[in-house]
Amino acid sequence: MRAIGVDLGGSHVMAAVVEDGAIKSRAENDIVDRTFDVVAKMVAATIREVLGGKKDGLAIGVGSPGNVDLATGVIRYSPNFGWHDAPLGAKLREHLDMPVFVANDARCATLGEHTYGGGRGTANFVLLTLGTGIGGGIVAEGTLLIGNSAGAGEIGHHQVRATDGFYCNCGKIGCFEAQASGTGLLRHALAVAPSFPRSELLADKPQKLGSKAIRRAAESGDGHALAAWNRYIDDLARGLANIIAFVNPEVIALGGGVSSAGDFMLRAVRPKVEELTTMVPRGQTRIVVAELGNDAGAIGAAVMADRGSLTAAARS
Ligand SMILES: [Zn+2]
User: 133 C-alpha to center of ligand 1: Å?
Assistant: First the structure.
């Protein structure tokens, strides 16, 4: 396969020429102005940059935050950009005169990871990216789940602590994303802080403290960080066990910043997930670290463009 994959984020856009799941060249730009027309122009310019003047008969796949009408490429709403009914697909076709397919960024990442990463060869697969939020996607019986209005896979917004959790950006309490994203880990560290009055963890610039610093401190045995980490792992395990009950996947791949914890995270979370897995046979779901990192979205978007849709089967 050969296509253009675009990963559009709230502050950054990356366009890549993707060949058989590998990125051959890329162009990137920062997004400062989030006005729809300005962003659409920036995306088109980034695609032109990576194409270097040639179109080569390639199709373009774009992964964007928000809920997307897959048939038209209209972003129905995107909290990251503050857009409603933004016709991204049509605008890019107008700018570039090439075939354009648009889908949610997390669904694109799931398609990429399923085709070329940690989900290769599985029929039932879930990707979760644990970053600022939690993005996800579900592959069932070999096909990416879209749902009735392209909302299947919004796993970040099922509640794991509905009565005693943190407020989520979506307005609910205790969403999986609020508890088990990288931001969730930081919130756990702040929540347990009163029990560790002599802790150094939040001593300087707590606003700059990231999930990586907390995880590293936990790994080196810091009491405050470990208390936060254990709560984090509890909530992550709750969500993973729920996913197993809903989807019964063969593999759940964890991507995003927090997954750089690798074995330290997997060793902690696996036995807790087993404990919480009740009606589905235990020990059947492999929980692994995702393989494509930040490139999963662009690679998956290119796969979508090459196949002509998010759900089309691979060409043989
Ligand atoms: Zn939520």
Answer: 9
